[in-house]
Design brief:
Blueprint: E1 6-11, E2 17-23, E3 31-36, H1 46-57, E4 60-65, H2 82-99, E5 105-109, H3 111-119, E6 128-132, H4 149-155, E7 157-162, E8 165-170, H5 171-177, H6 182-188, E9 192-197, H7 207-215, E10 220-224, H8 235-249, E11 264-271, E12 279-284, E13 286-290, H9 305-327, E14 334-345, E15 362-373, H10 378-388, H11 392-398
Parallel strand pairs: 3-4, 3-5, 5-6, 6-9, 9-10
Antiparallel strand pairs: 1-2, 2-4, 7-8, 11-12, 12-13, 14-15
Length: 410
């Protein structure tokens, strides 16, 4: 279903059923991306969700899945190792190739970043690889349980705590890490590379980014994530990383995949299926997200409905004033409108004197502050304020509107 995430499963490389989620854009899919999460994480981490969200806005479908024994996937984590993770990753690419289209973009976070670097050469259709906080050598993961290495060597396995959760690590997991030469894989993968890393990352040091970057051939890019932590827990950090990856990835999508975007008459709004409130707003060929703040259960991934309403008033105000100023040859250099919306009690509203406004209960109050920049006298500024009140959206909001609702068959 276009615009809706698809929950699915596919067979992992070693028999386990792997839980996955395919996020699709509204309209044609320009390309597919495959996302690999961090060690002991899941496909539902904030960073992976934000990345999927940004890529779908650019017309890119994103498959993210849980490795064997993690998240919603079956199998025993204790029996896995880095090699089996690579096999699962390749199987995910095979699934995309068979059911939809092979991935053009590979994205990996932490050890998932090392995994996509190691497997990139085996996914021939992929043209670009992006990593976030990836280690330059895969045995870096043993730093998470270094105090247990002697026990693992002696007894063959032990239970460790990772991210506050218990995991059984076996000797075969540790031994397998030594078999992989990540620098060699990076140097021979023949893909465009984007390395993203936080200088203050305390889990995987920034020096790892330098080693990966040095091992890679051009084209390659590096982007600093500044104050972010390893897991990109701050939604702003995750959103920034996602927007950079989305902008960068577009360059490596074949031009032949660019298809005309569906033109929507009027405005159409659909749920994206991500979170509780997020919706895709479509009008003409434009695509935008609407959402609610995190404080009420949203992702804060776009303006709220009242945010859009305020934006309509503000943009209409600016356009109306500009048209009048140009028509009258007024030397208006720039105009800016700031809108604030509140619900206030009618009894407390000194300005609420118009006949059509209720005399009790709550009413919607839009406070609009307009800035005029230019060499304008007081009389001209007063006239421009009067013109602002003539903006069509202003008139609509102040008048009584009619909304006619009916059901449209699916």
């Amino acid at each position: 279903m276009p615009g809706k995430p698809i929950k699915l499963t596919f067979d992992g490389a070693h028999g386990a059923k792997l839980a996955a989620r395919l996020d699709l854009p509204e309209g044609p899919v320009k390309a597919y991306a495959l996302f690999a999460h961090c060690f002991t994480c899941s496909k539902d981490l904030t960073a992976s969700r934000k990345i999927a969200e940004s890529l779908t806005m650019e017309g890119i479908g994103v498959l993210r899945f849980d490795f064997t024994g993690l998240g919603g996937s079956g199998g025993d984590f204790a029996s896995t190792n880095f090699t089996s993770n690579l096999d699962d990753l390749e199987r995910a690419a095979d699934f995309l190739r068979d059911e939809y289209e092979a991935p053009k973009i590979l994205i990996g976070h932490s050890l998932g970043g090392a995994a996509v670097l190691a497997v990139a050469g085996r996914i021939k259709e992929a043209t670009a690889v992006a990593t976030i906080g990836a280690p330059a050598d895969v045995d870096h993961v043993t730093h998470n349980f270094s105090e247990h290495l002697a026990t693992i060597k002696e007894t063959g396995e032990t239970e460790v705590s990772l991210g506050g959760r218990p995991f059984v690590i076996k000797r075969q997991f540790v031994d397998d890490l030594a078999k992989h030469d990540l620098a060699h894989s990076v140097g021979h993968m023949k893909k465009a590379l984007l390395v993203m890393h936080a200088p203050l990352d305390e889990t995987v040091g920034i020096e790892n980014a330098g080693r990966i970057f040095d091992a890679a051939k051009h084209p390659k890019s590096f982007v600093s994530l500044d104050q972010a932590d390893h897991l990109l827990r701050d939604p702003e950090d995750a959103g920034y990383a996602a927007s950079v990856i989305a902008a960068w990835a577009k360059r490596y999508i074949p031009a032949s995949k660019e298809e005309p975007v569906e033109i929507v008459e009027g405005v159409m709004v659909r749920e994206t299926g991500l979170g509780k409130f997020q919706s895709m707003v479509m009008t003409g060929h434009h695509r935008m997200l609407a959402d609610e703040p995190e404080s009420v259960g949203g992702f804060d991934s776009g303006p709220s409905p009242y945010g859009f309403l305020s934006a309509a008033l503000g943009s209409c105000t600016v356009m109306t004033v500009r048209m009048y100023a140009d028509h009258k040859n007024i030397p208006l250099e720039a105009v800016r409108a700031e809108i604030r919306h509140d619900k206030v009690h009618a009894d407390d509203c000194a300005e609420c004197t118009k006949d059509h406004l209720p005399k009790s209960g709550k009413i919607d109050r839009f406070e609009r502050k307009i800035t005029f920049i230019g060499d304008l006298d007081a009389q001209t500024r007063a006239r421009l304020l009067e013109i602002a009140d003539k903006c069509p959206v202003h008139r609509t909001l102040e008048a009584t509107s009619l909304i006619v609702t009916s059901e449209k068959p699916a």
